[in-house]
Amino acid sequence: MKLQITHDQDDLRFYASLDQEEAELTYFVTEDNVLDFDYTFVPENYRNQGLADQLVETALRYVKENNLKFTPSCPVVEAYANRHPEYQEFMVL
């Protein structure tokens, strides 16, 4: 399933609508303008389909395209970043 992901900059999240539910990746911005990805949620009925990876990929592409930095406080984001070395240079631990 390919998600249609929206970046809501006012609410600090990347999300996708799934029928009556939403999958989301939330973040906050630190004083150093680093995006700290802190929480990923996929509704139970949609898990194990690669949807969390799609959210993370979209968020990390945003970081890369805007020459930002990110902190992977969420273990899902950390695991994805560790599997994709093209995002390592943007990661701040």
UniProtKB/TrEMBL annotation:
<dbReference type="InterPro" id="IPR016181">
    <property type="entry name" value="Acyl_CoA_acyltransferase"/>
</dbReference>
<dbReference type="InterPro" id="IPR045057">
    <property type="entry name" value="Gcn5-rel_NAT"/>
</dbReference>
<keyword id="KW-0012">Acyltransferase</keyword>
<feature type="domain" description="N-acetyltransferase">
    <location>
        <begin position="6"/>
        <end position="92"/>
    </location>
</feature>
<dbReference type="Pfam" id="PF14542">
    <property type="entry name" value="Acetyltransf_CG"/>
</dbReference>
<protein>
    <submittedName>
        <fullName>GNAT family N-acetyltransferase</fullName>
        <ecNumber>2.3.1.-</ecNumber>
    </submittedName>
</protein>
<keyword id="KW-0808">Transferase</keyword>
<dbReference type="GO" id="GO:0016746">
    <property type="term" value="F:acyltransferase activity"/>
</dbReference>
<dbReference type="InterPro" id="IPR031165">
    <property type="entry name" value="GNAT_YJDJ"/>
</dbReference>
